[in-house]
Amino acid sequence: MAGNTVGVLALQGDFDAHIKALQKLGASCQEVRRESELDSISGLVIPGGESTALLRLADKELISKLLNRVVDGLPVLATCAGLILLAKEVLNPQQNSLGVIDVSVERNGYGRQVDSFIDPALAWTKEGRLLIQDRLPEQSTENTEGVFIRAPRIKDLGPGVEVLIARDTEPVFVRQKNILASSFHPELAKGQSVVHKLFLSFVRDNESSQD
Amino acid sequence: MEAEPLRLKVGLAEMLKGGVIMDVINAEQASIAEEAGAVAVMALERVPADIRREGGVARMANIEIIENIMRAVSIPVMAKVRIGHFVEAQILESLGVDFIDESEVLTPADEAYHVKKHDFSVPFVCGAKDLGEALRRIYEGAAMIRSKGEAGTGNIVEAVRHMRSIVTTIKELGNQSDEELVQVAKQFRTSYELVKLVAERGELPVPLFSAGGVATPADAALMMQLGAQTVFVGSGVFKSEDPHARARAIVKAVTHFKEPEALLEVSRSLRGAMPGIEISTLSPEERLQDRGW
Questions:
Q1: Best CA proximity match to A12, nearest among A65, A51, A67
Q2: In B, which residues are within 8 Å of A80 by CB distance?
Q3: What are the structural domain ranges in chain A?
Q4: How far is B89 from chain A (nearest CA, A)?
Q5: A contact set with B (CB within 8 A)
Q6: Among A32, B19, B92, B232, which is least packed by CB within 10 angstroms?
Q7: B85-140: pLDDT as tens digits
Q8: Count of pairs with CB atoms under 8 A, one residue in A, one in B
Q9: Mutate to test the interface with A, among B12, B17, B204, B233 (most CBs of A within 10 A)
C-alpha cells in the first residue's frame, strides 16, 4: 500500500491542530507549502486561518496543481477558511476563491470573535448518519462538538452538495464527492474527531484505488 | 481556569499561526496590510517608534480610529490596553475587537496588577521576557504570549534574547524532577500545575508569537526559526521606505521561513528598512520591556 500520507496545507493557519488530530488517528502528515509537496499525498487538509492571507500566499503553481488533484478525486477536508477558499461564491466582502465546491459562503457570518461559540451537540443529518454507517460501521452517530471561531456561514448550496451536519436548519458540514467541508473546526474538538475519521476513510479508498 | 471560553480564545490564536500581525494607524494602512496577506492588524494611534520619539502618556487608541479599521478589513482586529487598565479592556470588548494586547508599549496603569483576563470573553495577548513572566500571564488568562523584544527600535536583539530564554527554559523543565518543578514554580511566582503542564508538553499551553524589533523579512524568519509561531511587526512596515513591498515580503518570509532561497527572493530589491536604535543608547526609562513583571 502506498505511504499513508496526508498533506496539510501549511501556508498559514491552524495546520498544527489538524496534524495533531490526524496523528491521534494514526495518520502520518506532510506539511504543504510548495507545489512539489502535493505529489506524494493521498489526501489534503485545508485548515482554518485567514482566507485572505491564504490566497496571497498560495502561488500559481501550487493552486494549479491543487486544483488538478482535487478535480482528479483527491480527498479533501476543508475547514473554516479552507471552506471559504474552495467555495464557488464568497460574500462579505466578495473575494476570489477556487470555486470547486458548489456553495455560497458569507465570511464571518456568525460574527466577530466575541460571538465565537462552541456547540456541544451538533446533530448529523440522515445523509450524514448513513454515510458514517456505511464507511465507519463501528462509529456511533451521536452528536458531535462544533467549535465555531469567526466562522463562515453557508448561505446556499448546489444540487451536488450533500449536507452531513446541520445546525438548526443551516448546513455546517457538507460533502461534494471527494470534498468534505465544515464551517466549524473539528480539529479543535475534544477527543477523536469523527470528521477526521470520515476523511481518512476516503483517503484509504483513494490509496487502494492507486495501488 | 474556565475551559470553554479559553478554548475559543486559544482557538483564534491557533488560526493566526504562520502569519504576520501588523501595526496600523488608519484604515488605509489596514487595507495595505490585509492586501499584503497579514492575518490580523493591531489598531493603534501611534506606532511604537513614534510613541518612543514623542513621549507622553500612551493610552488605548481613539475609538474612532479602531472602528474605522474594523470597518476597513475582514481580518481580525486587535487593539492595545495599558497594563492593568481593565476598563480600557471592557471598552474594547464592548466595541467587539477580536484580540486585546495588554501591552508594555503603552504607559502602565497599574503597578501591581495585570488585567484579570479570565473575566473577559475577548482573548488577550501579553508580552514576556522569560518563561516565568509568560506563565504568570497565562495564569491570569492570556490566550497568546509574544516575546516583548524592544518595540519601536527596529533592533531584533531583545526579541531574540526573550525568545531564546523562553524556549531554552521550556526544554530545561523537561529534565527536572517534580521536586525541582515545585521550586521552579515558586521562583516563577506561578502555579505548580502550570509549570508541570509545560514540562510535560514541552511547549506553552497557548501559542508563542514574537514581537518587538522586527524590521526585515530576515528578522521575521529568524524569530520563526527560533521557535515563534507568528510574528508581530510594529513600526517595521509603515516606518520603512516601501510599506507595500516590505509587508508582502515579510508575510512570505514567515510562511517559507525554513527556505533560504525563498528568503533571498523576498529580500531582493527592498528599499530602506526603518532606521534602527542601538539598545545600549536607551536610558532605563526608555526600555519598554521592563514595564510589567
A1: A51
A2: 15
A3: 6-210
A4: 13
A5: 10-17, 33, 48-50, 52-53, 55-57, 80-81, 92-93, 107-108, 112-114, 116-118, 147, 149-150, 185, 188
A6: A32
A7: 999 999 999 999 999 999 999 999 999 999 999 999 999 999 999 999 999 999 99
A8: 108
A9: B17
> pLDDT at residue B1 above 50?
no
Specify the pLDDT at position A1.
40
- The predicted model gives A29-43 an average pLDDT of 96
What pLDDT digit, counting tens, does each position of B52-100 carry?
889 889 999 999 999 999 999 999 999 999 999 999 999 999 999 999 9
Say whether pLDDT at B26 is over 70: yes
What's the CATH class of domain A6-210?
A: alpha beta
Q: What is the pLDDT of residue B272?
A: 85
A207: confidence class by pLDDT, cuts 50, 70, 90: confident
- Residue B2 binned pLDDT confidence (cut-offs 50, 70, 90): very low
Q: Which of B14, B77, B125 to mutate to test the interface with A (most CBs of A within 10 A)?
A: B14
- Which residues are registered as beta bridge partners of A182? A79, A173
Residues in A touching B95 (Cβ below 8 Å): none
d(CA B34, CA B284): 36
Contacts of B35 in chain A (CB under 8 A): 52, 56
The reply to whether omega before B48 is within 30° of 0 (cis) is: no
Integer angstrom CA distances of residue A84 from A15, A35, A89, A182, B201: 16, 20, 8, 10, 33
Residue A105, min C-alpha distance to chain B (Å): 14
What average pLDDT does this structure show over B161-174?
Answer: 97
Q: Which region holds residue B96: left if phi is over 0, alpha if psi is between -120 and 50, else beta?
A: left
Burial class (CB in 10 A: 0-12, 13-18, 19+), A208: exposed
Question: Using CB atoms, which residue from A17, A93, A112 is nearest to B14?
Answer: A17
Tell which residue, B71, B60, B68, has the closest CA to residue B108. B60
